[in-house]
Amino acid sequence: MTAALVAVHRVGLVTSVGLTAAASCAAIRAKVSNPTETRCVDSADEWIMAHQVLFDRPWRGLTKLTKMAVMAVEDCLASVSPLDWSRLPVLLCAAEQDRPGRVAGVDNRLVNDLAHALGVAFGPESMLICHGRTSVAVALMHARDLIYRQGFERTLIVATDSLVTRLTLTHYEQHDRLLASSNSNGFIPGEGACALLIGKPTGQRELVCAGIGFGIETAHIDSGAPLRGDGLVHAHLAALTESGLSMDDVDYRVTDLSGEQYYFKDAHFAFARLRRRKGNPELWHPAECIGASGAALGGVCVAVACAAVERGYAPGDTALLHFSDDDGRRASVVCTAG
């Protein structure tokens, strides 16, 4: 079975290491990292570090999410001819609804605030997708449906998120999930935004989404149940089946892994259970440079793979992207070089 193909035509990024896709992807490739002190301290009375997007004004909350998203969209569409926004569905990805410290107003204001800031009116098919780190994979599935079943020429995926809020930092610190001098099994929080212009493949050198798969991991990070990687196995198999490829075809992986042992084990178990005759493909995890940035991280992974394909430094033609949420949702995307 081979799914309908969609391609990434343009990307835009705003991260702690760059305010454009070109700058961010170059920094990530060079392993540049820029964590800074937050206004919060941990249980050892040390400043909590985070990968923060630093502006000339101290934006916070919904305003900062909107500002980052606007910059990502402008970066993405900088070289694109004027768009008919009334015919361009915008799929806006954001934090899962139950995440501690989630920015207030995301559900009822973020879409309208972004449209107002851009000075446009989004098409009626636009939607808010609140699935955290798996949001971009869900958005790619919706984009494919909009293009092939509903006749849209292109769609715009936008993701914006931040884990750098007091309530979020406090929650994860109290649950021993933040990287600190007293805890090596943790992540550094981050924030950022991405924009992806999606359409049918053009035949040029570009990143093509060939398969998408989803799964549910019952042994999620808070369950205490033994982990076998069932959710990711199911997601990988579904995406590979759609693409008509196998794990032997995968040349490299780009993931949302951000430092916690649980997720590295999950990824390892799932990969090991899918038999492969070749050696292990390279494993890229941009969060080591930009931090765990929630819904935005999936878009960063797509942008990193896109840059590798377009600039010719990808280890091969086929990439496996995969994402995991704390509640057990798993997503895999098989991408190829067009």
Furnish the topology, listing elements before pairings.
Blueprint: E1 6-14, H1 21-29, E2 36-41, E3 47-50, H2 61-76, E4 90-93, H3 106-118, E5 127-129, H4 135-148, E6 154-162, H5 166-174, E7 191-199, E8 207-216, H6 230-243, E9 252-255, H7 261-273, E10 282-284, H8 287-290, H9 295-311, E11 318-324, E12 329-337
Parallel strand pairs: 4-5, 4-6, 9-10, 9-11
Antiparallel strand pairs: 1-7, 1-8, 2-3, 6-7, 8-12, 11-12
Helix pairs in contact: 1-9, 2-3, 6-7
Average pLDDT level: 95
Summarize the helix and strand pattern as letters: EHEEHEHEHEHEEHEHEHHEE
Beta-strand content estimate: 15-25%
- Summed up, the domain count is 2
How much helical structure, as a percent, in the residues?
25-40%
CATH fold label of the largest domain: Peroxisomal Thiolase, Chain A, domain 1
| Net shape | globular
Give the spatial strand order of the biggest sheet. Answer: 5-4-6-7-1-8-12-11-9-10
| CATH homologous superfamily descriptor of the largest domain | Thiolase/Chalcone synthase
Query: Could you tell me the number of beta strands?
Result: 12
Radius of gyration: 19 Å
Explain what you see.
This protein is of the alpha/beta class. It folds into 2 domains: 6-199, 3-Layer(aba) Sandwich (Peroxisomal Thiolase, Chain A, domain 1), CATH 3.40.47.10; 207-337, Peroxisomal Thiolase, Chain A, domain 1 (3-Layer(aba) Sandwich). The chain has helices at 21-29, 61-76, 106-118, 135-148, 166-174, 230-243, 261-273, 287-290, 295-311, and strands spanning 6-14, 36-41, 47-50, 90-93, 127-129, 154-162, 191-199, 207-216, 252-255, 282-284, 318-324, 329-337. A hairpin with a 5-residue loop joins β2 and β3 (47-50). α6 packs across α7 (261-273). The radius of gyration is 19 Å and the shape is globular. The mean pLDDT is 95.
